């Protein structure tokens, strides 16, 4: 793709892996050839897969630093080479180019008035909902044109709540910089720290070089209320059984309790039944089935009118929170800072819990890293009792009555 061989450089904090290399190549291929004109024939510069500098034949000396910390990432003689940083998150790069010992070009990152492209990585609903406000904050800070590479599942969300972004199907030819958006767990190239070590509000700040939490975006409903009776939404499934509530009678007892209170209980999982990690997770008896391939806006319009939502450490909890629906969050594997702040989190801290945030754990492989194959397997979830959840619901209802008085 490039005219000359690629030379990757990095801070040297840790060695890169074959998996890292595959990501760098994928990002670079998406961006295409280095696009930015420097005014010097053959010398090109952009920030579309980290910082990229295409250097033509000649006696060139290139120095690339962090303009804020002064750290030197690259300083050397190159010719007919494309320099690409392994660091892909926001750094205010500074580039100086000398020819035959004389400074002929210098540039410090400045996205003002430029097109900046954002790529929503993966299909993790909660991560994207969490990070979209940070894209808005970045665009506002730099006064740039924000472009998002099309991801069909989020089209309506972007159109309704982030109308200032341009959604494109092809990578923009005029892109000055590009950032890949996700809660990455393999530092230091996609982001400086493992996202599991950070409070949710800090992930977007690290990715995009921001200094404060972004303003939350309220997803207002776009349709009138459909269910006239009081109702509660629930979601019992997540990405893997380890995120689910595994108490054997848990959901059945909670659904029965809610119905005694006069609520309709509506299940909004995508699937009615899933089989994962050797377990069957299914909609509890007594709940009304609204599972299926509904759009995110369908879910927003359902959640926005619900009295509250009961869910897990999963994307639908983030969607409910964005829709202004109070969330009772049942969580065992993660610590509270991993999600949005809610006073109605249910967690049993007297048993093993929070392994998701242990950086020693390979989360992609270990299902229950501390107690797999023992009687304590998944105790973080199994030992959350129905009484704990019902008690939290009662506290929520009491709080709501207090606000109405």
Automatic annotation (TrEMBL):
All copies of domain Autotransproter heptosyltransferase TibC/BAHTCr-like N-terminal, residue ranges: 39-100
InterPro entries with a match to the protein in the record: Aah/TibC-like (IPR030929), Glyco_trans_9 (IPR002201), LPS_LOS_Heptosyltrfase (IPR051199), TibC/BAHTCr-like_N (IPR049327)
Source species, domain of life: Bacteria
BP GO annotations: lipopolysaccharide core region biosynthetic process
MF (Gene Ontology): ADP-heptose-lipopolysaccharide heptosyltransferase activity
Gene Ontology, cellular component aspect: cytosol
CDD domains assigned to the protein according to its UniProt record, in alphabetical order: GT9_LPS_heptosyltransferase (cd03789)
One Pfam family named in its UniProt record: TibC_1st
Presence of keyword Transferase: yes
Gene3D superfamilies linked to this entry: Glycogen Phosphorylase B (3.40.50.2000)
Residue spans crossing the bilayer: none
Identification of the protein by name: Autotransporter strand-loop-strand O-heptosyltransferase
